[in-house]
Description:
408 residues, alpha/beta, 14 helices, four-stranded antiparallel sheet, single chain, seven-stranded mixed sheet
Amino acid sequence: xxxxxxxxxxxxxxxxxxxxxxxPLVYLDNAATSQTPRQVIAAFDAYYGGYNANIHRGLHxxxxxxxxxxxxxxxxxxxxLNATDHREIVFTRGTTEAINLVANSWGRANxxxxxxxxxxxxxxxxxxxxxxxxxxxxxxxxxxxxxxARGVLDLDxxxxxxxxxxRLVAVxxxxxxxxxxxxxxxxxxxxxxxxxxxxxxxxxxxxxxxxDVRDIDADFYAFSGHKVYxxxxxxxxxxxxxxxxxxxxxxxxxxxxxxxxxEAGTTFAEIPHKFEAGTPAIAEVIALGEALRWVAxxxxxxxxxxxxxxxxxxxxxxxxxxxxxxxxTAPDKAGVLSFVVEGAxxxxxxxxxxxxxxxxxxxHHCAQPLLAQFGVDATCRASFAAYNTLEExxxxxESLERVIGMVR
Length: 408
Ligand code: PMP
């Protein structure tokens, strides 16, 4: 089995040596955003201190260097997702923007009144609201793929939802609220058998497991840089080349055109540039490339195996706490421990445990439809990354017991 040198990994993250309220930081909010290794931080310095320039149009040396580094990252992302072609990689501001791009470009071109879109109850709001906004305009119907008491999608119900009007399935690969890993490969097979497309929100998957968009046969796959050891402000939309080529532009501006004329009209650039209007987050994209190299250097199999140990240890440590209920008990989970405690509000737990140096997330995790099914409006969520240790889990569990004792 692959193993991690966690001490060496931690040495790459300057932030992990800081204190919070006089105690060593225990950072367990990785599903919201992961911390950034020095190699990624250094990429910003190298760019702004060495070759800051706008890309693609310049003929000067700095513009060439910036363009090369930017396009190197596109190739790195292609490899990371095992996509066929670097033209299938579109840079966005994040997962949210990637999904909005698909909704506004593919959705407007392909969805009409009476059509049906299947969305799982496990979704983050960013894979619900863009479809609701569009449905209100175009008149298609949203049908919800149900989850069972473990937080597992009901695949029989999923199969039964399809009709001849089903055009799209929108589902996450891993749930940010519960950590459920969804069988997206099988779900894609079913969608395609019915002539529907599938968009996979991979924001919570790519930090924890190797993803192969060709093996999944995803039509679209989205993720964010800041959840995979990279910077904020950058994300990725993967789309099959033939789909992207057929899709109309979404945002207009510089970079995305071939020619612009008031008389003859405007023609658009080839993919992926057709979908990258304006100056992108150049430094962030380049830094994302560093993050993916860092992840590859450590190895996603080793990271996933280590996080499974962290999850098992934390599950075992909190299971004995009286009145604590874990939400999300799927057999296949990644990176997330979500729970509520009888007689203790999630917010109170979050605030008090922060006083002990432990960062967890409390709230609805942008998954209100899911939490509503479980009769809660907030949970506490500890989420893991490669640099977390078993000792940190112990500190978390002991701190949690202390905090519960205080609020009860
Ligand atoms: N989908 C999932 C599953 C997420 O966890 C998140 C971030 N919490 C998003 C989408 C949105 O990502 P971003 O805010 O980076 O666009």
